[in-house]
């Protein structure tokens, strides 16, 4: 019986020690998360105060302008479509969406 009581006491000490260590690790992790959220909030605030609605990385415009010719792998160039070649939708091709 005495051995069981000693074993039980050792187990309680072990659980208590592990619980304390777990709580310390959790506290440190929560503090790290608070720091990271604060840094993120500062970055967002700086981006908003810059007054720019654009993202920091801008796309580079094509120096050759708009693409107006399509060249196939065979080397054949397709002509530009004219307004008459563009398909038109007839009223029968679509249905209005009912609410």
Automatic annotation (TrEMBL):
Sequence ranges of Basic and acidic residues compositional bias: 90-99
Superkingdom of this protein's organism: Eukaryota
Stretches the record annotates as Disordered: 79-99
Name this protein carries in UniProt: Uncharacterized protein
Native source species: Mucuna pruriens (Velvet bean)
């Amino acid at each position: 019986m005495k051995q069981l009581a000693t074993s039980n006491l050792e187990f309680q000490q072990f659980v208590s020690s592990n619980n304390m260590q777990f709580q310390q690790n959790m506290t440190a992790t929560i503090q790290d998360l608070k720091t990271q959220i604060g840094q993120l909030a500062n970055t967002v605030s700086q981006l908003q105060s810059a007054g720019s609605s654009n993202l920091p990385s801008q796309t580079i415009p094509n120096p050759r302008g708009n693409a107006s010719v399509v060249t196939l792998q065979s080397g054949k160039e397709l002509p530009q479509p004219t307004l008459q070649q563009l398909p038109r939708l007839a009223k029968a091709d679509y249905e209005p969406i009912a609410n």
